[in-house]
Write a structure and sequence with these properties.
By secondary structure, this protein is mainly alpha-helical. The chain has one domain. About 65% of the residues lie in helices and about 0% in strands.
Length: about 220
């Protein structure tokens, strides 16, 4: 039987290997993203995230109810007023030729956390105003790190992007650091986004949603 120290070393080696492979991959390589998520999502850090998010009534209730977005009719949402959250969500997906990322069921807190973060990712993009280009993704990654506490996965994504600038494109370092700072500060000012039942807010004006969450968009 392997000792705890040996298991830690195996996990660390696997995580390092995944990050290195990710640095070498093209941006948007979902296979590498999945491998990285599996490598760095250790039970200890996941439990810390669950405990941290459960410290708010919103987060605690989310883990109790485990609400999912359910079936989403993009065409129906696209017929809502253009200033609504639902329209903005549908327009974002339709414009980018995307489909909602959904899960049908979850069995435990860890599965719910992963499912909730996955299916609401585009909603976080919309509410935070983070673009879907590389700078917008980095800004949102920093937002996740600030809001999800021990979020090894999102921190690993930031690390990957910074390592890429070190090796391939150092001229981008300033803009990348600016994006990290903007996302971090915005997240610290904002109320928690985890656990919100977004499908109850489809008809709410996007500006009202942002105001209720104290989302202060950074200046360009």
């Amino acid at each position: 039987m392997q000792s705890t120290e040996q298991l830690d070393e195996i996990w660390q080696d696997r995580a390092i290997e995944s990050i290195i492979n990710f640095v070498r991959s093209a941006d948007g390589d979902f296979n590498c993203i999945e491998k990285l998520a599996n490598a760095v999502s250790d039970p200890d850090s996941l439990q810390k995230i669950v405990e941290f998010l459960s410290s708010t009534s919103q987060g605690k209730q989310a883990f109790q109810k485990r609400p999912l977005l359910g079936n989403i009719d993009l065409q129906k949402l696209h017929r809502l007023p253009t200033n609504s959250l639902g329209y903005s969500f549908a327009n974002h997906l339709l414009t980018n030729n995307l489909q909602p990322l959904q899960r049908k069921s979850v069995e435990n807190d860890y599965e719910f956390f992963a499912a909730h973060i996955t299916e609401t990712h585009d909603l976080w993009h919309i509410v935070t105003g983070c673009d879907t280009n590389i700078l917008g993704e980095i800004q949102l990654e920093a937002f996740y790190v600030a809001q999800l506490y021990a979020s090894r996965f999102w921190l690993a994504l930031i690390t990957k992007n910074l390592l890429k600038t070190v090796i391939y494109d150092i001229e981008l370092s300033t803009t990348y650091m600016d994006a990290i700072a903007k996302g971090w500060v915005m997240a610290k000012q904002a109320k928690p986004l985890f656990g919100i039942e977004w499908n109850l807010l489809w008809e709410t004006p996007l500006e009202d949603v942002r105001n209720s969450l104290n989302i202060i968009l950074p200046s360009s």
